[in-house]
Amino acid sequence: MRRVRWLISGVTVAASAVLLSAVISAPASAETLFGDTFDDGNADGWSRNGGSWSVVTDGSPVYRQSNAGTNARALAGSTSWTDYTVQARVKGAGGVAARARSTSQYYVLALTSGGTAQLQRVSGGTATTLATATVGAGTWHTLALEVRGTALTGYVDGSALLRATDTAYSSGRIGLVTSYAAASFDDVTVDTTAPGPGPSSPSPTTTTTPPPGGCAVTGTPAGFAAVNAWGQNSTTGGAGGPTVQVDTAAELLSSIATPGPLTICVAGTITVPAGMHNVTSDKSIVGIGATAGITGGGFNIGLPFSDATTPPADAVHNVIIQNLSFRGATDDSINVQMFSHHIWIDHNDLAQGYDGLIDIKRGSSYVTVSWNHTHHHTKNMLLGHDDSNGAQDTGRLKVTYHHNWFDATPQRNPRVRFGEPVHIYNNYYFYNTDTGVACQNTAGCMVEGNYFENVEEPVTNTYAGPSGRCVARNNVFAGESGAPDCSGTVQEPSAYYAYTLDDPNAVKSIVTAGAGVGRL
Fold first, then answer.
1. What pLDDT is recorded for position 132?
2. Active-site residue, 64 included
3. Are residues 170 and 234 in the same domain?
4. Residue 30's pLDDT is what?
5. What's the pLDDT at 157?
6. 214-237 burial: b if 16+ Cβ within 10 Å, else e
């Protein structure tokens, strides 16, 4: 059974009975309390008051309140919840509510039609504004309201913009709200941790001071990014070229567009314009220390879309992205497309994007995705974007995923089409409530030496659409993980490169200590 809505067991209020058919138990240490992507086409478990609510399609299924002539509320969860963060993507003048005691008593972080975000206390239907911030233009915004003790924090697209202290409500449900406006909502989650915007905390031995002269790529890639193919021997990025340090959007965007080898050292968090920003060949984009990152947009590695079925001579190649945090992308955080090759995406922290965190598609190949921490995001990673794209993808999409931490990311970890072999080894999967690896449409996935903890469907080749092939070997299935659903044979990755597996029983501790930023 596919589940796109989840609620931690132990909740005894009436709402849990409504959600019984979609409940998945999790260990007491789990961070995620609840989530709904509306991908199942319904909004069962939400209690509604006012308005006209329905699941509609807006790129993907979303929950929409379409009556602009009234106040409207949809509540879910438990009245016993105290300290947590409720997050959702919101389009229009709507908001997310926390500690709802009733449909007229709650805290809310709401967007207004005038281009502001407001943190409010609602009591008896009367709203008191506690904090206000101006937000940038955008069709969708990711809102997160953190309630912890008497402290209230409102995040917009990963940035903490509003803060207040209030003692009115100490516990309550979560909600989606509108006030005389229409709005759409998607990707609702409730976690016991803050949503960011900072990167993973550095390990105690991490040095956050950049080396003399700027920064440099640490290490060399393993897996497909190291293979000699398509005229490129391994992935070296900007090696051999100059090094520049950037701390503004203008400097960053100019540098990634510059022809020729270049190492780009990112200092601090840079807010870039919405959309995808093109990265040219022979680039290393490296964060300095543990606080470097990108918000507001994402990186596109590849030429514009076309129907070409053979790699062009000028395909983007030889790019390294290392030690950066990505938040609040208005599309993908990192997109690799159009026969791009020899790409290494390593030691990054990615969360709270609009679409995929790392998507690889349209004939791209010889890519390694390693030591990344992904979290607070639903639709994590695609490899192959569409079932109809076999002409570009068949025989390509050769990608290695190793030592990544897929942290409560419900689906696409990754979802694979066409590629073979796709090598997925020594990753740590935690509480992925829909699927871990989904291998579809003739793809061949080798899944080995991973640690799956409380993953409902760890590995499958029968997820949706045409089936693929997968081999699952030497993996650990801990807690309430299901069994792999695999069949067929797959090319051995060792035919392309040598590798050594870590003991899968040690993968959890290895990956949680080493994945993410500041841990090179």
1. 84
2. no
3. no
4. 40
5. 82
6. bbbbeeebbbbbbbeeeebeebbb
Considering 412, 415, 417, 519, which one is annotated as catalytic? Answer: 412
The predicted structure's pLDDT at residue 24: 29
- Domains of the chain: total: 2
pLDDT of residue 126: 87
pLDDT of amino acid 208? 35
DSSP 222-250: -GGGGSEETTEES--TTTTS-EEEE-SHH
DSSP β-bridge partners for residue 460: 438, 485
Enumerate the β-bridge partners of residue 453: 430, 478
Which ranges constitute the DSSP H helices of 98-248? Answer: none
Let me know how long the chain is: 520
- State whether 227 and 187 are in the same domain: no
pLDDT score for 162: 86
Final residue before a domain boundary, out of 145, 176, 191: 191
Residues 239 and 306 in one domain: yes
Asked if 74 and 95 count as a contact pair (C-beta separation under 8 A), the reply is: no
- The HSE-up count of residue 112 (CA atoms within 13 Å, CB side) is 12
Residue 16 lies in a domain: no
| Angstrom distance (rounded) from CA 64 to CA 55 | 6
Q: Is residue 11 part of a domain?
A: no
**Three-class DSSP category at 14:** helix
- The verdict on 270 and 410 lying in the same domain is yes
Domain boundary among 143, 173, 191: 191
CATH of the domain at 153: 2.60.120.560
Distance CA 420, CA 492 (A): 9
What residues in the chain have per-residue pLDDT under 50? 1-30, 197-213
Model pLDDT, residue 131: 87
Cα gap 115→158, rounded to integer Å = 17
Residues 164 and 255 grouped into a single domain: no
Q: Which residue, among 473, 478, 484, has the nearest Cα to 509 in the 3D structure?
A: 478
Asked if residue 94 and residue 48 are part of one domain, the reply reads yes
Q: What is the model's pLDDT at position 194? A: 64
**Is the model's pTM score more than 0.85?**
no
Asked if residue 213 is part of any domain, the answer here is no
**Structural domain boundaries, residue 429:** 223-514
pLDDT at 29: 41
